[in-house]
Design a protein that fits this description.
With 809 residues, the protein is of the alpha+beta class. The chain contains 16 helices and 40 strands. Among the domains are: 289 residues, Glycoside hydrolase 38, N terminal domain (7-stranded beta/alpha barrel); 80 residues, Immunoglobulin-like, CATH 2.60.40. Helix content is 25%, strand content 29%. Helix 1 crosses helix 3.
């Protein structure tokens, strides 16, 4: 093959970190410590003359997590050798912490990146690059996090299975501009095993992306395959008029597997190649930071892309919805603790290190063992699933213990006999707001000598500061009475409330309340501020009309008379849409061919059918309507809609009993809302607030998004908030199988399409948890507020998710 110029093929040697995909998580931790040691041993063998044929060996630690574990589990002598080689430029450290999903929040991401930055600074080595492998994107705030920690370059090896690289091409450089305006030089490379595909590793070749007539010889890396594939690979770049360089970088693993060891024999193949073909294509093994030195020296003007690099692989969280809910609770407690008491959290270095480690490890991109779908009964599959869950569980335990410690300093006491019924309510955020909060009386307690069961509705709550008696609603829950109030608190305000018997016992007395206690006669003034029955839900803020077969058919904002339901809605609010694909020919193959749709043309789709509406509670504070649906794939699908008299928030709870099904499945929940005005939709992602389909890199995913706190429709006069406590995946647009439109391909964007919560899925063919069965409770809050700036609006979503805290004092 005739080439137009002499080429340089730069090889970056690394081990792809996939924690829990090929082995037990703790075993892989040990492996990666040993891989660094093996790299040290290879370099020593070259120095000592044992393997001169390996001269030119370089090793790139794919992430700082590998280095962190090496430093914690190696001898002083080995650490000294490692640091000597790092300072000599023979071992390189990518300052990325791990290959993450967007589940990680900006605080944890920043702090983990800073650990690598601090280590590099301590060694006084000019490390300013990060690489990632496998994952298909990063939150827009990631660019800022890199820049903030002195990481100027990002090398991305995307695995395009069920995904795609941005801007429609690989081997592509650009400046990625973060929300703050800081820029990171970014190179989108090929798959991280491309060096193995080119058969540069004797005995460890693969055929995955490249298909040719030498497949049967590729596994043993026959040199003739190396020749054929490299000339074809370079030849395509050489004939591409848009590729202006005379070099190209590729990654290589020492073994044809994730979590593979270093391999000095790659240098034997490189040497053989250079002796035969070096005049046309020279191969050199270099480090990550060295590559960016070369790129910066030779690059011309590069495009600047500003926006979110939305991850195609974020949907793994939907395969473990129960544990993700537990993880989100851990995140909230971690943040609440820091907000309430920086001196007991941030200054507790051991706590911060431990809790952020667990939060980071659960957010790492691996979502199970490689045969989780095809062999769900296997012991190792389930062992690794338990271990993955343990990261979220430990994070929640640590954050809960720290929050308990903080609340104790604020006066919280343990249960005790004959205690005064005093409660402290705390606003944990720096936003003044009105919200509901629940106070709890244990089932065995009394109130000033009178048993709770005797009092029930005849207790009241008084604000100790003002003496005001506030509206109160009592309900029975397991082992306690829940006393709900609504109050207003300033930023970080703490207020004390007392529960006491009413001075005058009350009894319901409505003009049209019959002896059968059924309220089915409409008249003005019935339960002022809350008019709730099987046909309507009306407060001072909203008016909903209910249909016995469709559910909510009208939803009006009473402040301006506008509808809060989209004109282009397909499904009524909170309707469940369940998808199931027949397993043909097997559990692996049916999923393998689903692509970016996460479904097939033949996927069966079922919409929940409303079977009952009932009012389970209506009182001084709130009223709750329960919508019971029949939905294929579930034994129970219940939506609880709770409205309030004195606040415009609406709490929505889905109670679900999911069947066990091995077929590929999806479950969506319809949220077809709008401000009724000219508006834009914003999502709160890690480190940024972005408009889906608008604030994105060209050619990126606009099918679904993993958000942090929720979504906000920002109109000209008001904002509609959707706070997501438990299920962070959102889908825009049609659910049917369709041709995928990437961001920037069409003038129209998905920003104005109907919104769905993607509650669960099990479509991936390798390492998703395949069994979604069980009981679930997923919680959401809706609210219409005056117009807010996008960041303010999503901060209110965070406020609703965190809620007010209450405690015994």
């Amino acid at each position: 093959m005739s080439l137009s110029k002499k080429w340089k093929l730069y090889v970056l040697h690394h081990s792809h970190t996939d924690i829990g995909y090929t082995e037990r998580q703790e075993k892989l931790k040990r492996y990666h410590v040993d891989f660094i040691q093996q790299a040290i041993d290879i370099l020593k063998a070259i120095e000592d003359g044992e393997h001169p044929e390996w001269e030119g060996f370089r090793w790139v630690c794919e992430n700082y997590w590998q280095v962190e574990n090496f430093l914690a589990n190696s001898s002083a002598e080995n650490i000294a050798s490692f640091e000597r080689y790092v300072q000599a430029g023979l071992i390189d450290i990518s300052l990325n912490y791990l290959n993450m999903t967007e589940l990680v929040d900006q605080d944890v991401l920043n702090h983990k990146l800073k650990e690598g930055r601090n280590y590099a600074d301590r060694l006084a080595v000019p490390l300013d690059s990060a690489m990632s492998a496998d994952i298909n994107g990063y939150s827009w705030g990631y660019a800022d996090a890199l820049a903030e920690n002195g990481i100027e370059n990002l090398f991305s090896c995307i695995h395009t299975h069920h995904g795609m690289f941005p801007a429609g091409k690989k081997h592509n450089g650009f400046w990625w501009e973060g929300p703050s305006g800081d820029r990171v030089l970014t190179w989108v490379s090929d798959h991280y095993h491309m060096g193995n595909e080119l058969c540069l590793v004797p005995g460890h070749g693969i055929t995955y992306l490249l298909e040719d007539r030498f497949n049967e010889k590729a596994a043993v890396s026959d040199f003739s395959i190396t020749e054929d594939r490299i000339y074809q690979y370079i030849g395509k770049l050489d004939s591409d008029p848009e590729y202006e360089y005379d070099f190209v970088p590729i990654m290589v693993s020492g073994m044809s597997t994730d979590n593979g060891a270093p391999n000095g024999r790659i240098l034997e193949r490189i040497k053989e190649w250079n002796e035969r073909h070096g005049a046309e294509i020279q191969i050199e093994m270099i480090t990550l930071n060295h590559f960016f030195e070369i790129l910066r020296e030779k690059m011309n003007e590069l495009p600047v892309y500003r926006g979110d690099w939305n991850d195609w692989w974020a949907d793994g969280v939907g395969s473990t919805p129960a544990v993700v809910k537990h993880y989100k609770d851990a995140q909230r407690k971690y943040h609440i603790g820091k907000q309430l008491s920086p001196e007991l959290t941030v200054e507790d270095k051991a706590y911060m290190k431990d809790v952020e480690y667990e939060l980071a490890l659960y957010a790492e991109h691996t979502w199970g063992y490689s045969s989780s779908v095809t062999e769900p009964w296997e012991t190792l599959v389930n062992d690794l699933d338990f271990r993955k869950s343990a990261y979220a569980i430990r994070a929640n335990q640590l954050a809960s213990l720290k929050l308990d410690e903080i609340l104790a300093t604020k006066g919280e006491v343990s249960i005790r006999p004959e205690r005064e019924k005093l409660f402290k309510v705390i606003n944990p955020l720096g936003i003044a707001r009105t919200d509901s909060v629940c106070l709890y009386i244990e089932h065995w307690e009394d109130v000033e000598g009178v048993t709770v069961d005797t009092l029930l509705q005849n207790i009241e709550v008084v604000d100790e500061k003002t003496g005001e008696v506030v509206r109160t609603q009592v309900r029975e829950i397991a082992r306690a009475k829940e006393v709900e109030i609504v109050t207003h608190l300033e930023a970080f305000e703490e207020r004390i409330f007392r529960i006491r018997p009413k001075k005058k016992l009350s009894k319901e007395n409505y003009q049209y309340l019959a002896v059968d206690k059924i309220k089915d006669i409409m008249y003005e003034g019935w339960q002022d501020g809350l008019r709730v029955n099987e046909h309507q839900i009306e407060t001072d803020y909203y008016k909903m009309t209910l249909d016995e077969t469709k559910g909510i058919v009208s939803f009006i904002d009473k402040q301006d008379g506008r509808s809060l339901l989209r004109d282009n809605l397909i499904h009524a609010p909170f309707v469940g849409v369940y998808e199931r694909t027949e397993t043909k020919p097997d559990a692996w193959e049916v999923r393998h061919t689903m692509g970016r749709n996460r479904k097939k043309v033949g996927t069966k789709r079922y919409v929940s059918e409303l079977s009952d509406i009932r009012i389970v509670e209506s009182g001084e504070v709130s009223a709750t309507a329960v919508f019971t649906y029949e939905l294929v794939g579930t034994q129970m699908y219940e939506i609880h809609v709770k409205v309030y008299r004195d606040t415009p928030k609406i709490d929505v709870t889905l109670r679900l009993h999911k069947d066990s099904v091995w077929d590929p499945e999806n479950l969506y929940i319809a949220f077809p809302f709008t401000t009724g005005e000219t508006e834009e939709l914003y999502f709160d992602k890690a480190g940024c607030v972005m408009r889906p389909g608008v604030d994105q890199l060209p050619g990126t995913n606009q099918e679904f998004y993993l958000v942090q706190e929720g979504a906000a429709y920002v109109g000209t006069e008001k904002s509609f908030l959707i706070a997501l406590k438990d299920t962070p995946l959102l889908v825009l647009g049609e659910l049917e199988h369709h041709l995928i439109e990437l961001s920037g391909q069409n003038k129209e964007t998905n920003n104005a399409e109907p919104l769905y919560v993607w509650a669960m899925n099990n479509f991936w063919e390798t390492n998703f948890k395949v069994d979604l069965a069980g009981f679930y409770e997923f919680r959401y809050t809706l609210s219409v507020v005056s117009k807010k700036e996008p960041k303010e609006a999503t901060e209110l979503c965070k406020a609703y998710n965190q809620g007010f805290l209450s405690m015994y004092i």
